[in-house]
Write a structure and sequence with these properties.
alpha+beta, four-stranded antiparallel β-sheet, 10% strand
Length: 393
C-alpha cells in the first residue's frame, strides 16, 4: 500500500532500523531515533543499487516521489542516477575549489615567500577589499573581462588610480597561475589594457640642491625629540635605504669590525641579502645610540615599547616637525638625494644601483649579486658621508 502524509508523519522509531515501502522502488528508512530517510532502490547494469533522496520532513512525500520519477527517467535513458548524482557533487566541489578566491589564495601562498611581509600584506588587503566581494565566489573559468573591468572601475572611481592598475596586475598574475595549474584556460585581463585612466607618475619629494641639503642636515642636528628618532634622521642620508628597512634594523645585523650592516633577504623588497658599508660617521652615531637601545632587539625601537620598531610615520613626522612639508622632503627622499648627487659626482652607475638595492632591469646582465662592486661601494659610502659633513659645515 502506498504511503500517505499522515502515515509518514506518524511513523515512529523502534529498537531497530526498519523500512516502509511506497512503491516503484521508493521507500522510507526509519532509524531507532525516529529520523526518516528517503531511498530509491533500482537496478542498473544488472546490479541492485540505492539512491538517497533526502530527509523527511525537509523532503516531503510528494518531493520524494518527484525525485523518484526523475531517477526512473534517467534509467529509461540508460543513465545511472546514482553515478549522475556523484558526478554533479564532484563538479560542485571542483567548482568551489576553483573559485577566484580559492585560486587567488593558492597563488598567494605559492608566491608570498618572494615578497617582504608588508608587500604581501598589501596584496591580500587589496584583494579582500576590492576583488573578493565581487569575484571571490565566482568560478574562475566563468569570469570575463567586463566583470573584471567593473571591479577595477569601482577602485578607479574613488580616485585610487594606481591601486586599480596594481589590482589589474594582480588579477592577471592569478589568471596566469590558474592556466599553468589547470584551473583555467584563458586570461581575460589583457583585454583591459587601456581601459583604465593612466597613472600620473609621482616621485618622492626630495632635496637635491647641496645648499638646501646642508640646511636640512643642520636642522636634523638640532632635532630635540626622542634620541633614537634623531639618530634615525642622521643615519637616513648616510644609509639611503628604504624607510621600512631603516626602522626595522636590528642590532645583530651590524658588525662594527667589518663595518657592515647586512640586511636579511626577508626584509628586502627584492628578497636578496643587502650590504650597507658603514662609514666612520655612521659607526659613531650607532655606537652612541647603542648605549640607549643596545639592550633590546631593535636599533630604533618604538617610544612606547622596545619590543617593536618605531612606526613607519616616525621619520616623516620628525621631518614635519622640523618644518619640511610632504612636497619638500620625505623619508624615502634620502634615496633620491643620494642617487642624484652620487651620479652627478661621477660614481659608477651600477655601484650606485647596487647600493640602492634596485631590481636588475637588464636581463642580459648577470643575476643580482649582493656583494657586487662592494670595494667601490665602501669607498663611495665613506666619501658620501664626508661630503655630507662638508655640507653641514
Amino acid at each position: 500500500m502506498s504511503l500517505t502524509d499522515i502515515k509518514v508523519r506518524n511513523l515512529k522509531g523502534r529498537d531497530r532500523q526498519y523500512k516502509v515501502a511506497d512503491g516503484r522502488g521508493l521507500f522510507l528508512v526509519i532509524t531507532s531515533t525516529g529520523s526518516k530517510y528517503w531511498r530509491f532502490r533500482y537496478r542498473f547494469a544488472d546490479r541492485e543499487k540505492s539512491l538517497a533522496l533526502g530527509i523527511y520532513p525537509d523532503v516531503s512525500l510528494a518531493d520524494a516521489r518527484n525525485k523518484c520519477h526523475e531517477a526512473r527517467k534517467m534509467l529509461a535513458n540508460n543513465i545511472d542516477p546514482g553515478a549522475d548524482k556523484q558526478n554533479k557533487k564532484r563538479a560542485r566541489k571542483l567548482a568551489a575549489a576553483n573559485t577566484f578566491e580559492a585560486v587567488a589564495r593558492e597563488w598567494y601562498k605559492k608566491n608570498s615567500g618572494q615578497w617582504v611581509d608588508s608587500h604581501g600584506d598589501r596584496i591580500v588587503r587589496r584583494l579582500e577589499k576590492d576583488v573578493f566581494p565581487w569575484l571571490g565566489k565566482r568560478p574562475i573559468t566563468e569570469i570575463n573581462a567586463p566583470e573584471i573591468l567593473a571591479v577595477l572601475q569601482r577602485i578607479e572611481n574613488r580616485g585610487a588610480i594606481e591601486t586599480a592598475h596594481r589590482t589589474h596586475q594582480n588579477i592577471g598574475q592569478i589568471f596566469r597561475y590558474a592556466i599553468a595549474s589547470g584551473y583555467a584556460e584563458n586570461d581575460p585581463s589583457p583585454h583591459l589594457r587601456g581601459a583604465l585612466k593612466p597613472v600620473q607618475q609621482r616621485h618622492h619629494a626630495s632635496i637635491t640642491d647641496p645648499k638646501a641639503i646642508g640646511n636640512l642636515l643642520r636642522a636634523i642636528h638640532s632635532y630635540e625629540g626622542f634620541f633614537a628618532t634623531k639618530c634615525a634622521l642622521r643615519l637616513a642620508p648616510l644609509f639611503f635605504v628604504r624607510p621600512g628597512e631603516l626602522r626595522k634594523a636590528e642590532w645583530d645585523e651590524f658588525n662594527f669590525e667589518t663595518a657592515e650592516w647586512r640586511i636579511p633577504a626577508s626584509k628586502m623588497k627584492m628578497r636578496e641579502l643587502h650590504i650597507v658599508p658603514l662609514s666612520t660617521q655612521a659607526i659613531f652615531i650607532l655606537r652612541e645610540l647603542r648605549m640607549l637601545t643596545g639592550n633590546g632587539k631593535f636599533v630604533f625601537p618604538s617610544v612606547r615599547t622596545s619590543k617593536r620598531p618605531m612606526s613607519e610615520n616616525t621619520v616623516t613626522g620628525a621631518l614635519r616637525r622640523l618644518g619640511y612639508t610632504s612636497d619638500e622632503m620625505t623619508g624615502h627622499g634620502f634615496r633620491s638625494m643620494a642617487c642624484t648627487i652620487l651620479n652627478e659626482q661621477g660614481w659608477n652607475r651600477d655601484a650606485i644601483e647596487r647600493q640602492l638595492a634596485h631590481a636588475e632591469r637588464n636581463n642580459i646582465r648577470a643575476a643580482y649579486n649582493y656583494a657586487e662592486y662592494l670595494p667601490e661601494r665602501r669607498k663611495m659610502m665613506q666619501q658620501w658621508a664626508d661630503y655630507l659633513d662638508a655640507l653641514v659645515k
